[in-house]
Amino acid sequence: MRGGEKVLEALCDIFPDADIYTHVCDLRAISDALKSHRIETTFIGKLPYASKMYKRYLPLMPMALEQIDLSAYDLVISSESGPAKGIIPTSPALHICYCHSPMRYIWNMYNRYYDSSGLMTRMMMPPLAHYLRTWDVATANRVDDFVANSTTVAHRIRSYYRREASIIHPPVDTSAFGSVAPSELGDYHLMVGELVSYKRPELAVEAFNRLKMKLVVIGGGEMLEHLKHIAGPTVTILGSQPFEALKYHYARCKALIFPGEEDFGIVPVEAMASGRPVIAYGRGGATETVIANKTGVFFKEQTVEDIADAVQRMDRLDFNPADAVSRASDFRREVFANRFRHFIERATGTELAVSA
Description:
It is a single chain. By secondary structure, the chain is α/β, with parallel strands linked by helices. The chain contains 15 helices and twelve strands. The strands form four sheets. It has a four-stranded parallel sheet, sandwiched between helices. The chain has a three-stranded parallel sheet with strand order 7-8-9, with helices on both faces. The longest helix is centred in the middle third of the chain and has 21 residues, at 119-139. The relative contact order is 0.11.
């Protein structure tokens, strides 16, 4: 139940009778709201170890998507950061693609994924990526309207597909977070998220090693053990934590550290909903959510030196927690639901019923 699943959940609120098609579904991992819908999986869901190793089946996904029978539907919504838009709706059905990003691993982050992969993967990536890019561009014509989750993603859609996209930011459950009194604030900064190479978590750890200031890291992922290895005495690596622990640390940190470039980035919004400022890399989705020198500060380069400088600038900023909470409210679930519902109504010329 990460960002993409939260978007799917919000779409299901708008369309309570919708059916869901996906490659793989682990019923133990999804919410009751999603389980209440009819869920159909492609043949990939029946392949060995699909629930854990579904990424290995990427080469088969285009074929699997094109076998889905959508003849019963007059409206199809694909929610994707992978190849989901490659489905084939039956004419004259309307196909709306809510795009979290064109596939990062074949487009804007191809070289980073390639450099961090093992030998066998590096041997396979060039021909596979070439095939997928060709298929990905061709299937953009199967989409009637694109909706991007950020201006950053809309630019990628224009660059790779030569299509324009409306922008509707994804929903964030801001009501789940809250601020605390100044007397309850801690003496540490916080980094939250999946610990993978493109998010550059090692830069934050190295910066706080150098600053000799406290940093708490919450999240799991392929870089967890490496970060534990390089962490100095002021850096605490907690790994994955339950929501209550995450909420506690959000509300009490001095500021959130966000060193990666994200398509949108829900984590900075959650931190602001907790009344805390954000120190973020000045590219990508964070630039659309964090207000410079009001709800946080940006650093220009992904370097230890720039992060350390931004931490010190944040300490000098006259920060008002109420400004952060107010900004976070712009991205609450109700805002997403209203904007997406109105978009569908304009596209279809039909007024949607509002579910209870």
